[in-house]
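Issue 218. Parser rejects a valid record. Input:
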Amino acid sequence: MLISALVCTRNRPADAERAVRSLLASHGVDLELVVVDQSDDDETRRRLAALGDARVRLVRATPAGKPSALNKGLEVVASSIVVITDDDCEVPPGWAAGMARELHARPHVGLVFSNVVAASYDRRRGYVPTYERRRDREVHSIWGTCAGRGLGAAMAVRRDAVRALGGFDEAVGPGARFRSADDWDLELRLLLSGWHIYESADLWVVHHGFRSFADGRGHSHANWYGMGAVCAKPVRAGHPTAVGLGVWELVAHAAAPAVADLLSLRRPHGLGRIPAFCRGFFRGLTTDVDRAHLLYREASGVGAPSYRGTN
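Output the parser choked on:
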């Protein structure tokens, strides 16, 4: 079974090499591995060339953000099923084949997420973003995402389904105008176009993306700014009931934790989420949208120094 694997990277040659080595160890599949490199130097190219594996195809691209790199990868992959992970992740040998099987078994599913677990780290110094479910789940509508949503660090997509939507929105995601939430954005767009989403609890990737608590403040701001823009887009495109997603996010994941802290006589945390979300939401409402594909029309990347957005 031929499947394509896609990794986008920028200025993290050691991480990219580790991710590529883990994918090359995949079993049960005939693997093509496309790496889209937006780095400022040739170190990643040199490291991957030294592996001497003909399955690796390196595509150089100008620094225009992760969603732009993902679209570049979707243009050149050979398979209709594409597994995608981040350059700071490591996959088990059976992950790629397992993700492809989930898509093959469910022709109505356009996107599969797996769990994302943390590599070992010092919990006193920071955290690693994860997504872990105990049971498989199929999502049928945008409201299903209120119960959780996967991470772009561990997903498989039907190439043709994504390209029929115009690809990833190049205004949404790390390195783009709206700096995060590209995975949720794609999920919502697929759901609104009739596809289902599947989450597998039996498959996982290991995430090495450690962030200090100090870095986490900027990470949180980017996430909530991007999430606001993602919630605004379907509203701007003529799906007004989608405003409920934004209300849910603000109440359940921003206001409620702060209220709980106050009731427990603790200093409220996460209050910065609310203004960040609102800024993203209102910026999204004032940006033109391609209603047919749910894409922001003004999609200009800003060349962020890394892809560490939501993941």
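Fixed in the parser; the record now loads. The CA atoms of residues 261 and 267 lie 6 Å apart.
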